[in-house]
Amino acid sequence: xxxxxxxxxxxxxxxxxxxxxxxxxxxxxxxxxxxxxxxxxxxxxxxxxxxxxxxxxxxxxxxxxxxxxxxxxxxxxxxxxxxxxxxxxxxxxxxxxxxxxxxxxxxxxxxxxxxxxxxxxxxxxxxxxxxxxxxxxxxxxxxxxxxxxxxxxxxxxxxxxxxxxxxxxxxxxxxxxxxxxxxxxxxxxxxxxxxxxxxxxxxxxxxxxxxxxxxxxxxxxxxxxxxxxxxxxxxxxxxxxxxxxxxxxxxxxxxxxxxxxxxxxxxxxxxxxxxxxxxxxxxxxxxxxxxxxxxxxxxxxxxxxxxxxxxxxxxxxxxxxxxxxxxxxxxxxxxxxxxxxxxxxxxxxxxxxxxxxxxxxxxxxxxxxxxxxxxxxxxxxxxxxxxxxxxxxxxxxxxxxxxxxxxxxxxxxxxxxxxxxxxxxxxxxxxxxxxxxxxxxxxxxxxxxxxxxxxxxxxxxxxxxxxxxxxxxxxxxxxxxxxxxxxxxxxxxxxxxxxxxxxxxxxxxxxxxxxxxxxxxxxxxxxxxxxxxxxxxxxxxxxxxxxxxxxxxxxxxxxxxxxxxxxxxxxxxxxxxxxxxxxxxxxxxxxxxxxxxxxxxxxxxxxxxxxxxxxxxxxxxxxxxxxxxxxxxxxxxxxxxxxxxxxxxxxxxxxxxxxxxxxxxxxxxxxxxxxxxxxxxxxxxxxxxxxxxxxxxxxxxxxxxxxx
Length: 708
Hints:
Blueprint: H1 23-35, H2 37-40, E1 45-50, E2 55-58, H3 60-66, H4 87-97, E3 104-111, E4 117-126, E5 132-139, H5 143-160, E6 164-169, E7 174-177, H6 179-185, H7 189-192, H8 203-217, E8 222-229, E9 235-246, E10 252-261, H9 263-277, H10 287-304, E11 307-316, H11 318-325, H12 327-342, E12 350-355, E13 358-366, H13 369-383, E14 387-389, E15 392-394, E16 397-405, H14 412-428, E17 433-436, H15 439-461, E18 464-473, E19 479-490, E20 494-496, H16 502-507, H17 510-532, E21 538-542, H18 545-550, H19 555-565, E22 572-577, H20 585-598, E23 601-607, H21 613-619, E24 624-627, H22 629-632, H23 639-654, E25 658-661, H24 667-676, E26 680-681, H25 692-705
Parallel strand pairs: 16-17, 19-21, 21-22, 22-23, 23-24, 24-25, 25-26
Antiparallel strand pairs: 1-2, 1-5, 3-4, 4-5, 6-7, 6-10, 8-9, 9-10, 11-13, 11-16, 12-13, 14-15, 18-19, 18-26, 19-20
Helix pairs in contact: 11-12, 17-19
Domain PAC: 222-274
GO molecular function: catalytic activity
Protein name: EAL domain-containing protein
């Protein structure tokens, strides 16, 4: 047998132990011993011996031959186990071996103290480091008998092992399993042989297997948990220690795995984790997990310069439910409460039960307080409805406290205390309501609630109205288009512009209902003007960013309404601001595709005030560009703004778009825009926004002047 010693892992050091072997050599042997499992389990004795014959390492068979412990081999010298009659032969053999790079052989007798002498053959050579010798000891009976004995021993071990043993070839086909492995998966041994490993896995396991096979082929041994499917379809969780198998040339032959069934242990661990982190009644996160989630969301808010809201929800009069109807009914109410609150929040928010009738909600990644109030109001409305339990109708309500991070506190215990205090303010204020911790926010919330109530009444009382601003053709002076502008004729505050109420409509969700009314009213008016003024007359309606994100469900209704009116779809123009294009390009593109499928046209309002304006014209489906009035107002005094407007017009025309200039107020501005080739204009020079009846008169007059 030829021994090849790999290069040492450490530089040689002058420090030596009592055997004369350097510390570096000893380290090297320790590392090598870790990887020499082949020698550890070999059916022959294997030793690493220092030049003074101290035994540095021994495998299992070798230690058994000499009757020594493998952990204490350095207490023994190999020469002491040689029969006295053979000592001179051994000395001559060993002195030759330590100076030979090729193995030399010797036959002699070894013994264990006064025990039986064993005839053996020794094969040895220097290990290449110049500090030790490798010795293989084989019984005189020969390799075959030793191998047979070894194989029988390993056969007993493999078949009686409490761990599954699974061998696959390079194509991941099963070549061997022991009885335990077959039993774990509920098969007979012959049913598993010659079957692919993936036959025992689900889709998730197959995806993981692809990665693991690649690692095996790189020679990486691993221990990990893996799920298999039993013959009866049940899942089995296992702990696997997997080692790749290579031939002498380094070719990957397959892998051998030791497999332990951990299904019961995993189920027990998961149960313990579930009990430690979730409420057993509602299945919601408990206080422990809630605190962890709150900590995580606070870190996210810090990273993104956003804020989060913490809502503390407590049921009103819940103790009376338990006292009157019993705890079983109370538990049913709590479970239904959890379901109702969950229906009011996003999937990304966290709802937890702290205990009793106390719930908390973490609302993360918020951009304004109005969103918090809408959700809190929805919870109050949902929990005020009757609970049907066992044929009984039970009524409770909820008091909610709201604290904001970081304004109300960066310490999370303090934040929870703030929300709790705000909840008690709701209790003191009459219950069935929500309160902010901060007085200023509470006052602002009351103002928003008041405005929200007024707006709901305004929809029913038809207090909203639309004014129309003419859009003039600069080439002819005729009115071909109109922009619909929403106003609110408030019973006590008079006529309100959109800036005074649209933010409230966005925060309380009414913007969708109001926007639907505006579209339908403008479409009806467009149909009337097409009959009275021009068959190609168009009306534009504005969409706020919030409305743009939320009114996706309106499309089908609009489509049907336009059909009922007999109005060509291109008669309606949807005006969006450039800021909308910044908010998730994929979503915006999808929404604009819906508009295009409906036949609606799109105008890009306030053009030039955002970023990447030129790229937007190329990427998004736009029909009109509206130059922002901030550029138009400076045309007569700022050559830079004039040059910019001219460039926008030329660029838009090359892309097949029409251009509308906003905020035109002087004849000079109009003339400059005409010279620049602008298509349309609107502004106070032509007309202020006006009711539909006045608009019709002006439009007819503009046509009369040009003979149209």
